[in-house]
Amino acid sequence: MLSRRQKLVLLKFFSMFSVVRGYNILIIVLAQYVTSIFILSVNTSVKEVVTDLNLFMLVAASACAIAGGYIINNFYDSEKDLINRPQKSMLDRLVSQNTKLSFYFVINFLAVVFASYVSFNAVLFFSVYIFLIWLYSHKLKRKPFVGNLTSAILAIIPFFAIFIYYKNFDSGIFVHASFLFLIISMRELTKDLENIKGDLASGYKTIPISYGESFSKRMLTVLILLTFIPVYLLLTKYDIGHMYYYFYFSVILLIIFLIILWKSKTKTHYLILHNMLKFIIVLGVFSIVLIDFEMVLNRIQKWSIL
Predict the structure, then answer these.
(1) Can you say how many angstroms the Cα of residue 209 is from the centroid of all Cα atoms in its chain?
(2) Which of 154, 211, 278, 303 has the most CB atoms in a 10 Å sphere around its CB?
(3) Which domains are delineated in the chain?
(4) What separation in angstroms does the CA of 52 have from each of 37, 45, 231?
């Protein structure tokens, strides 16, 4: 049986894990490694990629910077989250604001330390990234359009650190990135629709508050139509192996999303739509292996023999 103190420590651990959204960071770390193996370093063995210490340091720096971003975002949004996410907010409040801030500075310092192992340019890259996250949380997220655009850009910047490291600037990579950027932009706008009540009470000038739900739905419709452009290019112009299954499935989900969107009126409806977009993003991470599925099968066979 755990003592009362041990239970409190465990609760605070889960609270901090909730604040930094550890589950999201684990997905991002996985996405960076899978992208490195199947897209960015196709001529390098899996073992070399996985054991590359420079890559590990870049991924660790990304994870720390993103975790710091979640902490500072939670710090500034504490009052708003009490309205939008009361249960999660109560868990997050088990850790004091001072402790969160202390951890924020420590974890950002670690991000810079990890980046310094790779190069001075990596230090500059992550220093600017950390500053932009703070600027977004402190100022930009309260502004319509600017906040949404900045949030989507910040979400894909860690992947550009990996692109730069491998010096792989193939056009197909940027088409993949544009698809991800559009999905994330849709998720941010859907999240604004979901959180209207708390945003309004906190004085946030999001797109739904400034221009209305109908305008936001039209904007989401345009974003969905724009998403079909990179999907078409990836299916017709680039070799994506069996990943075409994912893109066909994504198109079906986006059409369903659009139908539900125009019938949505409540927070629950928008939460469903938000989760649909999150599912598309997470499924995309695991679907990257389909680009070279034969290689995966061959390696599974080798491991089973061993």
Answers:
(1) 24
(2) 154
(3) 19-169 (1.10.357.140), 170-306 (1.20.120)
(4) 11, 11, 32
For 36-48, the pLDDT digits (tens) are: 888 777 677 778 8
* Residue 83 to residue 93: CA distance in whole angstroms: 14
Q: What is the DSSP string of 110-165?
A: HHHHHHHHH-HHHHHHHHHHHHHHHHHHHTGGGSTTHHHHHHHHHHHHHHHHHHHH
- Asked if 270 contacts 193 with a C-beta cutoff of 8 angstroms, the reply is yes
Q: 10-46, pLDDT tens digit by residue?
A: 777 777 777 888 888 999 999 999 888 887 776 777 7
Q: Could you tell me how many residues make up the chain?
A: 306
| Conformation bin of residue 290: beta by default, left when phi > 0, alpha when psi is -120 to 50 | alpha
Is the distance from CB of 251 to CB of 281 less than 8 angstroms? no
| Burial of 183: CB neighbours in 10 Å, binned 0-12, 13-18, 19+ | buried
Query: Which phi and psi (to 5°) does residue 258 adopt?
Result: -65, -40
